[in-house]
Amino acid sequence: MPDPPAVQLADVSFAYRTGVRVLENVSLEVAPGEFVAIAGPNGGGKTTLLRLILGLERPGSGTVRVFGEPVGAGRPGQRIGYLPQRAHLGGEAPVTVREVVSAGRLAPAGMWGPLRRHDRDVVRQAIHTVGLGHRADAPLRTLSGGMQQRAFIAKALASEPSLLVLDEPTTGVDAESQESLAGLLESLRRDLGVTVLYVSHEFGAVEHVVGRIVLVRGRIVFDGPPGELPGVWHDPSHVHA
Amino acid sequence: MLELEFMRLALATGAIVGVLAPAVGFFLVERRASLVGDGLGHVAFAGVAAGYLLGVSPVLTALVAAVLGALAIEWLRTRGGAAGDQALALVFYTGIAAGVVLVSSAGALNVNLFQYLFGSILTVTRNDLWTVLVLGAGALAVIAALYRALVAVVLDEEGSRVAGVPIAFLNVVIAVLAALTVAVSMRIVGILLIAALMVLPVIAANRVAWSLASTLGLAMAIGLASALAGLTIAYYADLPPGGTIVLVAAGAFLVCAAAAEVVRGR
């Protein structure tokens, strides 16, 4: 039996308030191992689409499945590594890279007691994968924006996810860090088979590594490889319009 | 000082409270909910008054009232459609109002009540010590067992929710721990000041710590030192223990803030 799609939305509509639909009749399938950029203007519904996939919102109609299972049931969530928009640290306490990444190991390791040796090894490996091995015990606030973002990606990786979801990961990050992020994500997809969903209002940083772009403006207005994207869509002003 | 039974009991109880209050307060401060302890203190006041009215142990009724108040704040925050500060305000004012009405009904506006409001060295009994020891050890054991989960919620509540972590359960655990801390601490520090001992050591530790774990450890050490030093000063200077303990903790904050400035200036 073939593997189920990593993500499957069937005829999904959603409204935060009655009568104001954010998404209308959206259907989308993402195969395991794909690298998909979901782009579109602010307010176009891409973050809502993401929240539906994560199980943080329930569709008004239609179905959302992750790896063949309905979202919100708990189990699919354990296979998702999630990098929220403007990943933040609650409070003002100093927190080290290792502490941030260890928090990502909670679901697979269980929440009682200290981390076991295997789980600590996974955390260590995740930190090395994003190139922060030498700063593992540094307070996060002493790192650059790009390095902090890598720490949060390591946190998402610590759950050994099958699906990595990133919401506006390039916000506040310099161009060089955006480039290295694109390379890191592509190597995760290629080497570990991780499915990547990259949500952004602009996709310039990943355009050369992404396999498919989905443009969302209340519905899906384009779905295909970047090479087939009509030239006008490459203009950010059009995407924002 | 130590040859006196009441001081030995006060110091032993103060030591447990000094460690417990910042350990629980850590999770409130880092979630930007520093005033929850204060709100629960006011609800505990209603509980103490109810204890006088019903003729049962005020500590027990304060514990019940604080736990109910903590659960109410959590329910209002997550399902009642009230923002965090609104939920706190609702419970805060209802608690103090109920306390005033109940105190008046019980005719208990007297010295005994003031001991609960501001703390007292003289009133700690051997039974109180055992109660604080058992409940305090239980609360610290829960924090140790759930430390990673509680930290994960502090760092990223939404991400933890996606991963299937039982957020509601963990939020209730923190709320009940805060209520428990208020109830067991009020004999020494007093209802009106217990929240300060939950918060001040943590924000002091935040200034000089280098990780979450070191923040928690330092906060507990500052809380312990504040409780023991505050009780000792209160004994020799004949001062109210709650206020003295909290002033020592406030002094610790100033020292830590100054130390952080010196290190940053180098």
Defining traits:
heterodimer; A: 241 residues; Rossmann fold; 2 domains; six-stranded mixed β-sheet; four-stranded antiparallel β-sheet; disordered C terminus; B: 266 residues; mainly alpha; 12 helices; 82% helix; globular
How would you describe this structure to a colleague?
The complex is a heterodimer of chains A (241) and B (266). Chain A is of the alpha/beta class and 241 residues long. Chain A has 2 domains: 158 residues, 3-Layer(aba) Sandwich (Rossmann fold); 72 residues, no CATH class. Chain A contains 8 helices and 10 strands. In chain A, helix 3 packs across helix 5, helix 3 packs parallel to helix 6 and helix 5 packs antiparallel against helix 6. The C terminus of chain A is likely disordered. With 266 residues, chain B is mainly alpha-helical. Chain B has 12 helices and no strands. The interface between A and B is large, with 38 and 35 residues.
Tell me the fraction of residues in β-strands of chain A, as a range: 15-25%
* Rounded radius of gyration of chain A (Å): 18 Å
| Nearest-integer average pLDDT of chain B | 88
**How far apart, in Å, are the first and last alpha carbons of chain A?**
43 Å
- For the record, what is the CATH homologous superfamily label of chain B? ABC transporter involved in vitamin B12 uptake, BtuC
CATH architecture of chain B: Orthogonal Bundle
Determine the structural class of chain B based on helices, strands and strand pairing: mainly alpha
Q: Mind telling me the CATH superfamily name of the largest domain in chain A? A: P-loop containing nucleotide triphosphate hydrolases
Total helix count of chain B? 12
The dominant shape of chain B is globular
Radius of gyration of chain B: 18 Å
Q: How many structural domains of chain B?
A: 1
Low-confidence stretches of chain A: 236-241
Q: What is the multimeric organization of the chains shown?
A: heterodimer
